[in-house]
């Protein structure tokens, strides 16, 4: 299941480094080629709830195999796209299974693990996204420059096919979840705690994306490093993501709410530091590692939180978490661009990142207050 997450991570993030090749090959401008990234994000946002609702009664192993095959199809179609419109449509299709696969895989991993190891099991699935940023994305960029962007998506399709085969061979048969009906699942998503958890993700993760979206020009223009050195620092970011992912799973097994609060607080500090550290290569290297670690450390905790607050609609809740993640991507990148365009400089993304994470912390604080009031009310009634 982690291998499937790796294929999704490469498919989503490598496209950003392949834009020059996609634009040249399809005969469009760079901004227009960037719409293929938006198409993938749109596919994630639409596909997560639609596929989760449509296949809620499907046996989990069969569903994961089907979603892995859809990942393969979308990326193979991307590799074979004859023109820009074909590439746009293929990237939309490639994004459709993203949230449903990761959400279902996280739910299955949690169900197979002991109760006190659920978050660590979820972290192992999400680890594929971190490995994609550490190894997959730099390697995909290199392959795209050496051979073709089409070769990259072809390789992703092959990885997805291997994932489907391994899931079929290695994962035990897992039945479908309880059939509560589409309306009840949607009502479950409207519970305050579910909405607050999704809001924490959609806003809180935006801070990381505000910085990451513009990290390359910041490093070349402010830190003054050569473009050939940038992949090394991106690998440092990936290392931070892996470390944070595993630490976040470990902390969440010992208290989900405490882990969320801790990672949000540390993220604010790390992101605000980016306002100053890019002027020094050693400092920005450490800072980039910490931004990756604190941001990805939030992932297992929020995923586990959603499984807890939506016990009767876990698949939909876990899938929507990745829709929220992509909304955070759009929000962070947009606001980061706004402050740069306003003349505040490349490092201003650190400030806007910290503000977004603080806003996510406020949403989380509301969830914490509501949970304590509900606990107090339940205790009072029991007395």
Automatic annotation (TrEMBL):
Gene3D superfamilies: MFS general substrate transporter like domains (1.20.1250.20)
Predominant localisation class: membrane
Record-level GO cellular component terms: plasma membrane
The Major facilitator superfamily (MFS) profile domain, residue ranges: 1-377
Keyword line: Cell membrane, Membrane, Transmembrane, Transmembrane helix
SUPFAM superfamilies: MFS general substrate transporter
Membrane topology recorded in Swiss-Prot or TrEMBL: Multi-pass membrane protein
InterPro entries attached to this UniProt entry: MFS, MFS_dom, MFS_Efflux_Transporters, MFS_trans_sf
Name of this protein: MFS transporter
Subcellular location(s) of the protein: Cell membrane
Molecular functions per Gene Ontology: transmembrane transporter activity
Membrane-spanning ranges: 34-55, 62-82, 88-113, 125-145, 151-174, 194-216, 228-247, 283-302, 323-344, 350-370
Organism: Teichococcus coralli
Statement: the UniProt record of this protein carries the keyword Transmembrane: yes
């Amino acid at each position: 299941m982690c291998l499937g997450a790796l294929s999704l991570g490469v498919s989503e993030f490598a496209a950003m480094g392949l834009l020059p090749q996609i634009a040249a090959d399809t005969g469009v401008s760079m901004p227009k080629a960037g719409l293929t990234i938006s198409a993938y994000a749109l596919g994630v946002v639409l596909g997560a709830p639609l596929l989760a609702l449509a296949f809620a009664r499907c046996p989990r192993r069969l569903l994961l195999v089907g979603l892995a095959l859809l990942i393969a199809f979308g990326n193979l179609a991307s590799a074979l796209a004859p023109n820009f419109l074909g590439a746009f449509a293929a990237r939309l299709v490639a994004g459709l299974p993203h949230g449903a696969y990761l959400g279902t895989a996280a739910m299955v991993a949690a169900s197979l693990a002991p109760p006190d190891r659920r978050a660590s099991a979820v972290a192992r699935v999400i680890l594929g996204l971190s490995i994609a940023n550490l190894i997959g994305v730099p390697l995909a960029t290199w392959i795209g420059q050496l051979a073709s962007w089409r070769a990259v998506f072809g390789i992703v399709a092959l990885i997805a096919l291997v994932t489907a085969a391994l899931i079929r061979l290695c994962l035990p048969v897992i039945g479908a979840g309880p059939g509560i009906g589409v309306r009840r699942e949607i009502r479950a998503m409207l519970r305050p705690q579910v909405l607050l958890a999704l809001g924490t993700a959609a806003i809180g993760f935006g801070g990381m994306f505000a910085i990451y979206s513009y990290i390359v020009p910041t490093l070349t223009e402010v830190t003054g490093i050569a473009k050939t050195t940038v992949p090394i620092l991106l690998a440092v970011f990936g290392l931070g993501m892996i470390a944070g992912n595993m630490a976040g799973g470990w902390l969440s097994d010992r208290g989900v709410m405490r882990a969320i609060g801790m990672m949000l607080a540390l993220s604010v500090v790390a992101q605000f530091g980016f306002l100053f550290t890019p002027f020094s290569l050693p400092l920005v290297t450490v800072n980039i590692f910490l931004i990756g670690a604190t941001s990805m450390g939030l992932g297992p905790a929020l995923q586990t939180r959603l499984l807890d607050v939506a016990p009767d609609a876990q698949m939909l809740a876990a899938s929507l978490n990745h829709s929220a993640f992509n909304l955070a991507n759009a929000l962070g990148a947009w606001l980061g661009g706004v402050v740069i365009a306003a003349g505040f400089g490349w490092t201003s993304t650190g400030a806007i990142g910290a503000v977004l994470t603080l806003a996510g912390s406020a949403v989380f604080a509301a969830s914490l207050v509501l949970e304590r009031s509900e606990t107090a009310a339940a205790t009072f009634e029991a007395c």
